[in-house]
Amino acid sequence: MSDGDEVRRLVADLRTEGVELHTYQDGPLDLSDPMQAAIEILMAAAAYEEKIEEIEKAINAIEEKKERGDDLGRPRFGMTYDEEKRRQVPGERWEDVVAIFEMREDDCTYEDIAEEVGVSTGTAYRVVDRRKWYEMRTEAGIKL
Question: What is the pTM of this model?
Fold first, then answer.
């Protein structure tokens, strides 16, 4: 059964039960009028198809980024995307990333690092845990 079928069945059930339906933008809908009910069904079906197309475009864009080897998602702590929006590079809080690595090398606890740098202990731990990832994305001259 398609989603269009589900919408038709839902509208029919709402009409049968006498449920008053309201939308945020248009207010009450008169589903007792068969023509208005049909229009609502058609509008819902069109909106559904439009949303499916948007989802497919987004999935295709993500697949293209994966195939190119681009980074995906929100930048990790201390990072930002380059101008092409393809790779994560050091960002505004990069100095904090370096400070976290240095403090951990000095055997500071994650709690001490968090307090000193102004991050959560979880963030401090994740940065240290992802050290190799950070090293792979920094310029050749930077050693962490």
Answer: 0.61
